[in-house]
């Protein structure tokens, strides 16, 4: 099975396969927007694919005040939080988005409770008008993003990416695929040089694709599985979060999150880390 998946990944890197995939997606970008009387709207339950104006949720927003990972000798407990939002530009189909993921050693009071790493992720993308397909809705995003952690050498990490993200939503299920191309950077003259590529092997650990599967079983519950890398790189990571409403609250959710693999955060992308945490999710 793994051998077959590897063959598929290698095929997608060849020009004929890439051209075929592009040909399948061109109609999404070339098709005119539906008439106002027949506008197709993705389910409000999945903010990541919403097309509304103004400021809105992009990725999930959560605070995990307690997480545990055995890999951080003596500092295994830390808080993790993510903030993310997007804004539709001037009534067009272009969006600006910003996400931030932080790992805070809040309980390491003997070292002034430092932030171990914070990854900053601005992006700009174009979102197609959703169209009906196979008893569901399909759409796609195409954009540019930057991700870095703002640290100094030797802990500095950064990369620039072009991406294409087709998605399919049907009822309580959303499948969101992200295909990434890393924009090459020049090599460093020496390891201590601030200029040049801080992490030339990062795609060996995180690959060129993310797969997100969202499922709502009912009663306000949501399961979100993310699988990153694996195909074509032999590494990657997987994360599963399960959230449910806080009693008597319409906009707060209890969440349990499990993750394993490489690239949990940029500074440690070469380390395989297993983590479990729980907390509050404010938007999902």
Number of strands: 14
CATH topology: Outer membrane phospholipase (ompla), Chain C
Helix content: 10-25%
H/E element order: HHEEEEEEEEEHEEEEE
Distance between the termini: 33 Å
- For the record, what is the CATH homologous superfamily label? Phospholipase A1
CATH architecture: Beta Barrel
**Rg, nearest Å:** 20 Å
Tell me the fraction of residues in β-strands, as a range.
Answer: over 45%
Q: What's the arrangement of strands in the largest beta sheet?
A: 2-3-4-5-7-8-9-10-11-12-13-14
Look at the structure and give the CATH class.
Mainly Beta
Give a quick account of the main beta sheet: strands, pairing sense, barrel closure: 12 strands, antiparallel, barrel
User: What would you call the structural class?
Assistant: mainly beta
Q: Which regions have little confidence, pLDDT < 50, spanning 5+ residues?
A: 4-20
Query: What is the approximate shape?
Result: globular
Mean pLDDT: 85
Number of domains: 1
Give the helix tally. 3
